[in-house]
Fold this sequence. Notes:
Blueprint: H1 7-28, H2 32-41, H3 46-63, H4 72-79, H5 95-108, E1 119-121, H6 124-138, E2 146-148, H7 149-157, H8 173-189
Amino acid sequence: ADYTPRLEDVETAIGFFAIRCAVASSLKTRDWLGFDRMLSRIAVPEQERNRFLQMKADAFVDSLPEAVEVDPQQARILASPAKTIRVTARAGSGKTRLLTALAYLLVEGYRIPPEEILLLAFNRDAAGQLEDRLTTLLKIPSFPGARTFHSFAHGVAQLTEEILMDQGTEVSKRQLTGLVQDILRTLLDDE
């Protein structure tokens, strides 16, 4: 009983081989943007997509300097092609380390200028650590996008004209806070 493969099975196998070659090539050359574009345009089974993302995560880890250590779960987060990432975890779990690695990869791997990256931390210490680590890693004088939620909201609220009025000309702090929270919630929930 000789088995003769169907033409569509052969075409599918050739297609997967071509995709695997293209994935391997983009990872070898560290063409992260090309990888993300390709993965967003091709239809592959979820298992294969997960395998490709794991390959990207492994390649990311290999491309990081020794000063930046990430665990396998953090590497998988870094491999995500998402445009925004919200990191929620307990104290001491590595959030600052993850954000440092993410910003490093965005600047070095995706060629995004540091001034176009916003990293929000809950307190000044974490924001300061982000800036210190990134200025050292990237060899730049400052990283202005490492901010606390409060300093970011304060910067947003420093308007040249009043847009929210409460009684007379008083701007309601509660309304401003609500506006900033709504904007951030919308940005973070778009993904």
